Amino acid sequence: MATPQLILEPEFLKKLEALSLVSRRAYAGLTKGERRSVKRGASIEFADYREYSSGDDLRYVDWKAYGRLDKLFLKLFIEEEDLNLHLLIDTSKSMSFGSPLTKADYARRTAAALGYIALCEYDRVSVAPFSAGLREPMSPLRGKPGIVPFFRFLETKMPSEGETRFGDALTQYAARTTTGGIAVVISDFFDDTYQRGLKALMARNLQIVLLHVLDEDEIKPPLTGDLRLVDSETGEQGEVSISAHLLGRYEERLQKFYAELKSVSSRYGMDYVRTSTAVPFEDVILQFLRRGGLLR
């Protein structure tokens, strides 16, 4: 039987147990349940105001503000509710690149950490591997009894194979998803249809986090001379002569790639975290994602 220790070290698991996922959105009034967690206090807190619109619940009008300003304002609250964590993991062939830790290994371990946090908090966790399309997803799990089957799925159902058709895969997932929550997309994003897929997820009222993983050799290729390069997904080959000028052009394209992803995430209100397999994945969890507000 698989155990969590096969993916994450026990000492790291203890650190994860002190964390929780944060999904915060403003709404008028109290209509949802509180997060089921022994670590949390009140389920809501005041966030902001907005002007009253016809049909709004008068119970949430701030009458003191009306007395001062002669305008009706509605109180907005921040809700903490039972979360759904959707882990969408790129399992295309390009994710098998890297040594000694592949991008696929890195993605799987990062997903394991996030899912472990959620399950310890009695949140629901779903896993959806994708490549040319959506692959067989893991049925949603909840609570600590789900930890072992969750880790087993990550260890046995995630082979890296096939091309990436980002747009098709995420659109398929969005079509079968009826719950909101947090969607963490872990990928190298080597497919230019990703925007279509992300827009489909947005239509499902999901808070989206993009975790962009590259290998250090993709960031700074240790290449020289005349080489035959092979596309890991399509098998296409090409002869190329590596020069300082060519590496400079590669760096420019890479920076443009980063900027585009960051711009897209900013434009659509998504969180974007870029990392490399040279960065300990523990740092992504304990530092980057906490700093970005996904964890606390």
Notable characteristics:
alpha/beta, 6-stranded mixed sheet, 24% strand, disordered N terminus, 296 residues, 3-stranded antiparallel sheet
Entry summary:
The protein has 296 residues and is an alpha/beta fold. The chain has nine helices and eleven strands. The protein folds into two domains: 4-18 and 84-291, Rossmann fold (3-Layer(aba) Sandwich), CATH 3.40.50.410; 26-79, no CATH class.
Low-confidence stretches: 1-5, 26-43
Number of domains: 2
Distance between the termini: 31 Å
Residue fraction in strands: 15-25%
Write out the strand line-up for the largest beta sheet, numbering strands in chain order: 6-5-4-7-8-11
Structural class: alpha/beta
Q: What is the CATH architecture annotation of the largest domain?
A: 3-Layer(aba) Sandwich
Largest sheet: 6 strands, mixed
CATH topological fold name of the largest domain? Rossmann fold
Overall pLDDT, averaged?
86
- Determine the number of helices (DSSP H or I, runs of at least 4 residues): 9
The general outline is: globular
Helix content: 25-40%
Pfam family, one: DUF58
